[in-house]
Amino acid sequence: MAVPDAEGDDTSARDVEEFLKDWADIEHLWMRIQYAERNALRLGDTVYLVSWSKAKGRPVLSTLDPGFYFPVLPDSAIGADTYPTKVHCRPIVK
User: Fold this and answer.
1) Considering the entire predicted model, what is its pTM?
2) In the predicted model, what is the mean pLDDT of residues 16-32?
3) Backbone phi and psi for residue 18, each to the nearest 5 degrees, phi listed first
4) Are 32 and 63 within 8 A, CB to CB?
5) Contact at 8 Å (CB) between 54 and 27?
6) Spatial contact of 31 and 40, defined as CB atoms under 8 Å apart
7) Which one of 23, 36, 69, 91 is least enclosed by Cβ atoms within 10 Å?
8) Are 92 and 65 in contact (CB under 8 A)?
9) How far apart (Å, rounded) are the C-alpha atoms in residues 31 and 19?
10) What three-state secondary structure class fits 76?
11) What is the pLDDT of residue 94?
């Protein structure tokens, strides 16, 4: 991950880059991406969910089985560029 101008004198850009690197380590980002992409090969797709955790006070990353992801799109949604207005997810019980 790189933030533009993070190597210059701009300390705020360096702080943002450091925050993102720390967050990626805490969330095991690369492991989760690898796991999700393996499922994507097998299942044909994957879903990443980034949400805010009040308990942790930071964003958290989850991956969802695409078979349990049901986006609700408006009637005018023709292309893939339309973001769902609501998403229904079934919890995966292990």
Assistant:
1) 0.59
2) 89
3) -65, -40
4) yes
5) no
6) no
7) 91
8) yes
9) 18
10) coil
11) 46
3-class SS of residue 47: strand
Q: Looking at residue 25, what is its pLDDT?
A: 93
Residue type, 51: S
**C-alpha triplet 76, 80, 83: angle, nearest 5°:** 70
Contacts of 70 (CB under 8 A, 6+ apart): 87, 88, 89, 90
Bridge partners (DSSP) of residue 85 are none
Rg (CA), the chain: 17
Name the token pair of 58. 């930071």
**DSSP label of 74:** -
Q: Tokens in use for 47?
A: 């879903």
What are the tokens at 59? 């964003």
In one letter, which amino acid is 7?
A: E
